[in-house]
Structure formats: structure tokens, C-alpha cells
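Q: I'm writing a short explainer about WD repeat-containing protein 37 for a general audience and would like to include a description of its predicted shape. Could you first generate the structure from this sequence?
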Amino acid sequence: MKSSKRRLQALTEGSDGLPNYIKMEDSEISLPPALRSRLHELFSQIEKEFDLLYTENLNLQEKIDFLSEKLERESYIESQSNSQKEKASHKLRVQTSKIVSSFKAPTYNCQLVREFTGHKDGIWDVSTARPGQALIGTASADHTACIWSVEWGKCLLQYTGHSGSVNSIRFHPTRDIALTSSGDNTAHVWQAAVNWDLPRGQSSEEELEGGGEESLGEGGDRPEVLRTPLTELTGHIGVVVAADWLTGGDHVITASWDRTANLYDVETGDCLQILTGHDHELTHASAHHSSRLVVTASRDTTFRLWDFREPIHSVSVFQGHTESVTSAVFTREDKVVSGSDDRSVKVWDVRNMRSALATIRSDSSVNRVSVSGGGLIAIPHDNRQVRLFDLQGQRLARLPRSSRQGHRRMVTSVAWAEEISNINFFSCGFDRRILGWSIQPSKEN
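A: Of course. Here's the predicted structure. Afterward I'll give you a sentence or two in plain language.
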């Protein structure tokens, strides 16, 4: 699965529905209408067959997961029981009882509240606006980025300025502008002010009950469409897979498949520095919330910490994964959490890169992780799972993934938010949906 995401992303850059490897310029060749129609029909049949096989595979995987977890619980309980008999300690029995009870109920309750639909292709990224704004942003392989009202469940603004898959989206920390990266080798800064006077239309509760996946603007009010960026950031010669604002919002960091990360001045659009050193394509870039620090992740199995607090920047290399590092993000406690296709997530101290503080192992490749202000790690997986852990590596909960509540394809990205209308967490995936969740400590805590 580790290369499937990249192949999917490359295939989405065609705008006529045909894969890029059979798409040519009109000046080179023009397919007869009948042949083009036949190709569309064949690819549609292939997609349907793939969906059927994919669904069957996921059902089998669910059964395996259930049996594996059951076996794990039984083995753990048995080992703890043997430990009790050997040590015959009342204190140990009490501690063991508490540990075993953690398998019976999650520490956090996870409830699906709202579903957002309308993108016409898979969604690569979801991001939340600054505190006080009930907005989320999404980046999709359908070449668009959207800004949604969390309370209404509606798209208020659609950005169509990119000519390739939109791979990431981030809101400015203080201004109504957004930053997106794309398969067209650029990053765009664009006006993200929304019209709050748009009619609310159908409620989110009605959308959940209806279960339909209407396109943006169909069956309701069409969102505003923006086509022109304020600033276009150029210079990369490969797909720009991620971009983020440095603290203060005056500079932007981008990560590209050309193996470099670029630092830009937002006002002028000038590239200030080109950061080199990774041996393979970059997969992610993220900036610290209050310091001029950046982490970049790469398919070379490493992530790098770049320090721009001094005139001459420094760099540290973190090695600990065995396959592509898919994301790396800062926590509020000056730690870094990294996720990888090697099916692990690691927690690091930025002051000590020799070994990880905690390692979380799973049964599926990890996509773009997110850490809450309270230190909860949300891990989206290729197998549709979203799991929650603390910074010590303790498992806290797993989001439901039934046909009614969970994602139907791989979960690509997650994002925490200040609680908005009882929603404080968002997930998105290649089922073209964004799900809004309420994640709260269970009453038993």
C-alpha cells in the first residue's frame, strides 16, 4: 500500500477522467469519440470491479482485526492472571484489575456528529481554521479546495485555481487567507473570507439521515467560487505535496517530490531558501506553532528538523523508521510525532534525536497524523481505522468504522479543533467524505 497513494495521486492529475499515461496533447493525437467513450466505459467497469474486491478485502480485514483483538485481550488477561498467582500481592492485583479493565471500555467516547460531502474525488487533507471560526478546509484530488461551515455542514467557498490535485490546505493563523499545495508544482495563497449570509439550506442532521452524496451546490445553494490566488509560489520542479505557515504567518514552507523544501516570503512570493538533504521525495512539512522550527518528512525513511531561529539555519536528522515517513508534526510540549508506512508512530524529544520516547505499532500504514492541544495523537490508517493514543503510547480509543459511521476507503488526514457545536475532531479519506466527530472522555474516567 505504501506506493498506492502516490500512484493514485499521479493519476488524478488528468482533468478529462482518463489516466495520464494514455492522455496526450491534442497536437499529438486526437482519440475518436467512439474510442474515447469505449475507454471511459472500460475504466468504469475496472473501477467497479476494484471497488467490489476492495470491499470484500476490507470485510475480511475487519474479521481479522476483531479476532486479533480478541486474542490479544485473552492473552493479556491470561498473562496478568498468571502474574497474580505468582506474586500473590494485593497491590499487584489491584493494578492488574485496572489494566484489564482498560480493555473493556475505551477511555474516550467517539460519536459521529456530521458528514460533509460534495468533493468529486478523494480528499487528501483536512484542516481547521483559527479559534473562533467555525470553519474547516479540505484539499482534494478533484483539483479543488473547499471551505466548509461546521455548523451548517455546507461548503461556503470553493477554490479552483490549481490545475492539479490539491494535496494540502492550511489557514493563516490571524488573517482570512489560506495556503494550498498542488500536483501542478505550485503552492497558492488565496483569499479565504467567506460569505456568512448564504442561506443555510438543508441541515446536517437531514444530510446524515438521507445518506446521499450530493455534489457541491446540488440540491441547495451553490458556494462561491474563487479562481485567482493572491500569490502563486513557484520554483519546484515536482509535485508540491504539503505546505504550512511559519509562526507569524509571514513565511511559508513547502515540501516537494523534487526532494527539496522551499522557504517563501508570502508578501513578495520570493523563494528565500531551498532546503536540500533528503535522498528521496518529500511527503510532508509542518511548522511549530510558536517557534521558527519546521519538520520535513521523506520517503528516505527520515524526517528533518530545521531551525530558523538564527540567521544561519541548522538541521537535525531523525532516523528511526524503516520505510517512508508519511508525516511529522509538533506537539504543544515541544515533541515531534512521526508516522510511517512501516506501520508505526513514534514520539520524539526535539532536544534528543537519538531514540524515540514512545513507539506505537499498528497493522496498517500511517497517513497524516494530528496531535491535539491536550496531547492526544490521532492516527489515520490505510485500512480505514482511526486510532487515538496519548504521548506515552497508551491506546485510548478507536473511532467506529461501520458502514454507517466510519470511512469506506483509506483515511488520509485528521484534524483536531476547539469544540464547535459538539464537534472537536475531523477525518477525511478517499471515500470523498469528511466526518465531524465528538470525542469526549468517558464518564468512567
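A: For your explainer, you could say: The mean pLDDT is 84.
Q: Perfect, that's easy to follow.
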